[in-house]
Amino acid sequence: MTSLTQLFESLSPPEAARRLLGCEFVRTIDGREARVRIVETEAYHQSDAASHSYNGRTQRTDVMFGPAAHLYVYFTYGMHYCCNVVSGPVGTGAGTLIRAVEPVEGTELLQRNRDRSGIDLTNGPAKLCQAMAIRREMNGHDLEQAPLRLVLNPALENDQIVESTRVGISKAVDVPWRFYVKDNPYVSKS
DNA sequence: TGCCTGATGTTCT
DNA sequence: GAACATCAGGCAC
């Protein structure tokens, strides 16, 4: 049996971002489970000017250079958290930003964390972190362990995946490392 | 429907 | 001291 860490260690940033589409997060809160399906991702790598790891390993980006299949959580714009799944071998600053997820189970648990429902619940990187109560304390969390586990689903077919340029960045804007599930309403517009 | 802006704090220069 | 992998509310059309 292959561990998540071994699998994501062996994938390049865009391969990891594609592989994550269709996989699920299982978040345990107060003994109850919420499940969400990943529908939009962006790949980042240290050779990439838009990546936090571009300027080398710092206290903030330390976990991006650590073992794969761990969670990199960062705080931005003074009020939002976003989360990434670390990929590549130890010492490589690579990861996949989770931009949007689709609730599968335990939706009311997610709604309790956000004062909203419907599409608005998880259709953005900071929104899904709030819905799943992902905060700074979860930085460096191993995704094979509760209370937040990554569950692999079969890889999606290529005709289900749309590739495009990334959103919300000002450097390396032409790199086509954003991937999303075709025709999914939770994918953010642009 | 779509643009503009304020909120707010961490990180790096 | 400025930039920032964002969101939500307000206002104009």
Gist of the model:
This protein is 15% helix and 30% strand. The mean pLDDT is 95.
How many domains, in number, for the residues?
1
Mean pLDDT: 95
What is the CATH topology classification name? 3-methyladenine DNA Glycosylase, Chain A
Shape: globular
Describe the fold and architecture.
The protein starts with a helix and ends in a 9-residue tail after the last strand. The longest helix has 8 residues, at 13-20. It is α+β, with helices and mostly antiparallel strands and 190 residues long. Strands 1, 2, 3, 4, 5, 6, 7 and 8 form an 8-stranded antiparallel sheet that branches. It is 15% helix and 30% strand. It has helices at residues 4-9, 13-20, 107-113, 125-131, and strands at residues 24-29, 32-45, 71-76, 80-86, 94-105, 148-151, 161-164, 178-181. The protein has a single domain, classed as Roll (3-methyladenine DNA Glycosylase, Chain A), CATH 3.10.300. The mean pLDDT is 95. Strand 4 and strand 5 (94-105) form a beta hairpin. It is built from 4 helices and 8 strands; from the N terminus they run ααβββββααβββ. The structure holds a DNA duplex (13 and 13 nucleotides).
